[in-house]
Amino acid sequence: MSVFSRVARGRLAAWLTVAAAIVVGAAVFGLPQPDNPAPVSGSGLSLQWQSTQVERLQDQLPSSEVQPAIVVVSRGDGAALSEADRGALTARSGDLGGLAVGGQVSPPQVSPDGTVALVAVPLSTAGGQDEVIEQVDRVRAALADLPDGLTVEVTGAPAFTADLSSVFDGADITLLAVTAAVVALLLLITYRSPFLWIVPLVVVAATEQLTLRAVDVIVPGVGINLQQGQVTGIASVLVFGAATDYALLLIARYREELRREEDRFAAMRAALRRTAEPILASGSTVVLGVLTLLLSEQETNRALAVACATGVVFAMLSALFVLPAVLVLFGRGLFWPFVPRVGGPVREGRLWGRLGASVQRRPVVVATLATVLLGGLALGGLGIRTGLSETEQFRAEPEAVTGAQTLARAFPAGSTQPVAVITTPAAVRAVTEAASAVPGVASARPGDAGAAVAQVDVVLDAEPGTTTSDRTIEALREAVAAVPGSAPPAPAGADTPSGAIVGGSVAATYDSDEANDRDLRLILPIILLLVGGVLVLLLRGLLAPLLLVLTVIASFFASLGAAWLLFDHVLGFPALDSGVLLLAFVFLVALGVDYNIFLVTRAREDARSAGTRAGMLSALRVTGGVITSAGVLLAAVFAVLGVLPLITLTQIGIIVCIGVLLDTLLVRTVLVPALAFLLGDRFWWPGRITRETVEASPRSPEPVAAHD
User: Fold this and answer.
1) H or E element that contains 693
2) What is the pTM of this model?
């Protein structure tokens, strides 16, 4: 076949691939979007948790679709409210009554010190979240023109719902813009070409948008409620990072092959043969890792598992099919001004060759120092605190948070969110007395009652979500469950309770923390086994996979310790959110092992012609630049999660950012090579490298001296 025919066929195949990608993308965007299933509960927990059982049983109460918005009024100078202030609030109560369920509100309650007044405005939740937001806006508008000097804040569950929604307004666009800008800048710096960076950026951005559309269809389609914001934000960042990493690996190998092949289509085929295995292994590791979140008790984590797995699959497909087709269509000129020519000089890898040679000379010392450094960073997490209260979730405090803080200064801190105890109507009095006797309970009084169930409203002294609040919830559950005849009928699908059960948003936060602890104990060993299994299949040995998994674990604890020092002493975060540990571990293990896969698969390839030590040295030299660029880029992309308004997302972004940098700049750069230099061919035990002669391998690594 003539050269012209081969080029024509290659160009046709590339155009057909691009056309097929466009058709697939159009088909995905054209899929009908299913209705988003209702969440399993407000907290996302199943029926085995008391808070979810309470939520289901509250549907039997007359006021099941009513929640109070709490209007908090105080003076800006902190002084006591005057008679005129109280009169103005009382006069405005009529306007609030027109917005309340039942058409009226109770008179204002004034704190014992006279500095704060509150009015509870019962609002209907039957219309869904959008209706709740609209009602809260109307309540705030009705109080906008109170006399000067008065501060009015609306808090309570409906206000938290409205404010959480508002802080995410425009966040998706901001996240996309900042992420794209970061990726564009780093690609421009990496390639030092005015054109080359555009191609991977466009392909990656299209992949991210396609992923988000697919997630809108797939997650509800499998019966999981999709919460926009947190789930789509993390999935978006992951796709940008993973797809760009794969693009960097492919383009680096393509450029390497262009120095050997005149035909760019042949060069791309060779590059794909050499990069498909690490990309598929890397992507499979991430997919399996995030899919372990399907075992989570939290519905949000299960949605995240499906969304992230979908995104990584699209990232692999774009790197192995779409990006190669686009690159070959543009030809060598895309690399201008550093156009790779056959037999041209190799500019990459000199620094990494010198670093590898230094590590090879003293592998024991280097491995020891790297391990000590990781251990030292891990010690920073010894004083770690977990569990954020509801008012500590936001980086910028919305009105619902400041209102709750104002209320907590003058009333019991739990006034904004009373705990709901569900029992039988006949046991209400006994349950109320038992709840009132629990230390940490400010008050307990009978609430709404239906034919089969009744509610007791309990106000705690402690702020919701704190350790003190959690201890009170534990004691309260024990006390009310012991009341004879207090067990309500079991909700459909749940076991019959032994006594009265405790729920509400405060108890749901406690249950969520317990669920997160259970998830950690279950999912952590599973993901380590899955990642180890992928490495065993890829490297055909046991010792190297074991060492790589151990280095990733060490990197996680080091990144957690370093991040906690930053959170505690620099950013002033009160604690680590209880759900962060699981997500950070999953992402760091799944993503952190990627760079070891990229390095070690190349080392195994080169070791066939030069031996393990020379192969690792060659792999470090030829992959050092691209892996470092990929790691820095992925770390920067996850750091972009900090633009979102929740402390939880900021913490995940920073921990993963630090962990990826450690994996890229310390573990992959010096620790893993030092272990390979130290062990030699035993690194692959019980497998072994089949040696090839240098003459028989046209792709044998060039001697390091030729590049240094």
Assistant:
1) none
2) 0.83
